[in-house]
Amino acid sequence: FPVDRIRNFCIIAHIDHGKSTLADRLLELTGAIAKTEKNKQVLDKLQVERERGITVKAQTASLFYSHQGEQYLLNLIDTPGHVDFSYEVSRSISACQGVLLIVDANQGIQAQTVANFYLAFEAQLAIIPVINKIDLKNADPERAESQIEKVFDIPAEECIRISAKLGTNVEKVLQAVVDRIPPPDHPFKALVFDSNFDHYRGVVANIAVFGGRVRKGDRIVSAHLNKTYEVNELGLLRPDEHPTQRLFAGQVGYIIAGMKDVKEAQIGDTLYLQEQPVEPLPGFKPAKAMVFAGMYPVDQSEYPGLRSAIDRLTLNDSSVTVQRDSSLALGAGWRLGFLGLLHMEVFNQRLEQEYNASVIVTAPTVPYRAVLSSAKLIKNRRAVQKNMIYIDDQRVMMKYLFPLNEIVVDFYDVLKSMSSGYASFDYENAGYQTADLVKMDILLNGRSVEELTTIVHRERAYRTGKAMCERLKDSIPRQMFEIAVQAAIGSKILARETIKAYRKNVLAKCYGGDITRKMKLLKKQAEGKKKMRRIGNIDVPKDAFISVLKRK
Ligand code: GTP
Fold first, then answer.
1. What does the alpha-carbon distance between residue 239 and residue 218 come to, in Å, rounded to a whole number?
2. Which of 15, 20, 28, 59 to mutate to test the pocket of ligand 1 (most atoms within 8 A of CB)?
3. How far apart are CA 205 and CA 209, in angstroms?
4. β-strands 126-132, 160-161: how paired?
5. What is the pTM of this model?
6. ipTM at complex level
7. How far is the centre of ligand 1, averaged over its atoms, from the C-alpha of 16 (Å)?
8. Per-residue pLDDT for 399 more than 80?
9. What is the CB neighbour count within 10 angstroms for residue 218?
């Protein structure tokens, strides 16, 4: 049933003013029960209720009602009128959006009429006043109506005069239920699934609304961080921001609520209205970082700027994990975790393009747990087939156990090209396994380049080391002196390449004495050097680091 055609209401009244009788009529009118003498006070199911003719326990009945060509589902909750059972009334009220407030035309407002009215009023329910028993000889509906106007501040015209006993005007009551009671409105509940930082407006969070609605000016709470904000702006993404007055359940949009710190709009967090706390949504399974690399500013003076750039970028990409780290050679920096190598490169590129940051990225590694014991000596197979399932005559699904470092860098690309793009690949963590691994250093003129230190399988060390040396040779420009590029395990050298000495004379094309032009060229060369990382007296371009780590 569409929620806009559901009405939840209860009937409240002073004792004996006719709730159960009206309920019977409503049930009959909507065909829920047959209209016979026997069907009296059908919602009073308990024996004690029937014997005493009073309602003790709240009862519920669902009615189907057609109004102006539309089917409505009316959920009626009958409540007891006696003061002893007012707990039942408040419980019923909390499940409803509206009430029928019955007043006996003869007796007028009584104590429980007032008490029950306030319960409904405080719960901000729609209140429909119904004057009952107008068939009675002494009925004085005008008096009852003016009491309602005076005591409850409800205009007399809003009252519906009925005889529950005879069924007079009961149809009008049903119409009023549909017209005057709003459909159920679940508490606002939204999931933050993305967010970004805008310099002028602060944090812009993308949300999916799972329940209720939110408006500008509402006070909302972030469930995990438990902070309260006022909604300044919200709207839909079409795909540009399109401000609206509200966001409803089922809608996806953006919200700006004065979050200043980039960490405030945590992806996976739940937002709710301050006055209507809800259970937080399950959120997202935290992404599991598979590749780790150190990130350092080229110059330590750039540390604060880089920190805020990384903070902002990780707000936008919460799958990146960040830990502070420092190294003797590189100073203060971070250890970042990524989902894969491409992810790492994209992150690095975004840092440069969107935040104008210049960073040194160390050799990516996968998480290892090192146990220094002879059990490493155990020969390890690099991939173990687990199973093979024919999905149909065209497709087969194979499961292998792989060491993560075998697949993380380029396995996907190789697989795709080998299968002309038909094969697809996915992986999940299968835990740690023992393996025969060695730590391999890359040396430039005998000095270890910390960023390029890698952990490799012993059997692959030579091949990997040789390839890395070759690629470094290609990506480090010649300098004024000869450079030896070596791969080593401990003191054992595995591979060597040599970069011949050479000096790029930027002034070669300058004839004559145009000093300003010379200065310009020298300045340009100096700026180019900024993008270099100096290891010993060797300038290594930043790009060399990533290109070296990729396999061909
Ligand atoms: P509790 O369940 O005890 O809270 O009472 P209630 O408010 O449900 O009242 P109920 O419907 O049991 O009606 C009380 C008495 O008023 C019964 O004897 C009904 O027959 C009578 N009554 C209800 N509606 C009308 C009406 O419209 N006209 C007349 N004349 N009597 C009515």
1. 24
2. 20
3. 12
4. parallel
5. 0.44
6. 0.97
7. 5
8. no
9. 19
